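Second attempt. The first submission of Shikimate kinase had a stray character pasted in from the spreadsheet, which I only caught after the job came back as garbage. Lesson logged: always re-copy from the clean sequence file. Corrected sequence (169 aa) follows.
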Amino acid sequence: MDDNNLVLIGFMGVGKTTVGELLADRLQREFLDMDRVIEKETGRTIPDIFAAEGEVAFREIEKRITIDYCRNTKKNILSLGGGAYMQPEIREACLKECTVIFLDISWEQWLERMEELKEGRPLLQEKSLEEIQKLFDSRHDTYRHCTHHVLTDRTTPEEVTEIIMEKMS
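This time the job returned cleanly.
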């Protein structure tokens, strides 16, 4: 396995953080949830940034920090926020500098998780189910631009981690 960062992408609630922590343990790498990195570097929560400055300002902060980590760190497991990969500059930096793993989930499976996901996720609190499905579908097409694709439906985080390990070997 090379020294590149592994970047986990996928829709919110797919399990990027859980799988990222398991991968970091297996590979003895540091796990970085980029949403938490952004909060640490700005000293504010993401909902606070959204409320005070709006999504556009948040996306600029997210872009700057994420690209910096893609270009200037190695051997980490980076978990991106669900919308980060929609930004072309982030996507290009990830694909050029890192190994990108798309954790995929069906809409039906995601719906089963939705209620437990709402807290701390401004986009879920503001949008109707129809709007969320449109967002899910539009992001799905972009997520397919990746190094490895892993379907997570009806699998445990441990099984997903094992699938990724097999793809990486």
